[in-house]
Amino acid sequence: MTFWKLMQYESVKPVKQFGFTLIELMVVVAVIAILASIAFPAYQDSVRKSRRTEARDLLLSAA
User: How is 1-63 classified by DSSP, letter by letter?
Assistant: First the structure.
């Protein structure tokens, strides 16, 4: 095979790419940020309710 035929044959082969593009990673980060912004206030509210219940129980047991 001549050099030019070899180069032509090599350039036709499909190139396999692995990994993620920057756009895909940015979309995933944005989705995670949106989910976290929804979940975090709900978590804080749950912790607040738990602390109130614990404080109420302690006050009732002390009385």
Answer: --HHHHHHHHHHSPPP--S--HHHHHHHHHHHHHHHHHHHHHHHHHHHHHHHHHHHHHHHHH-
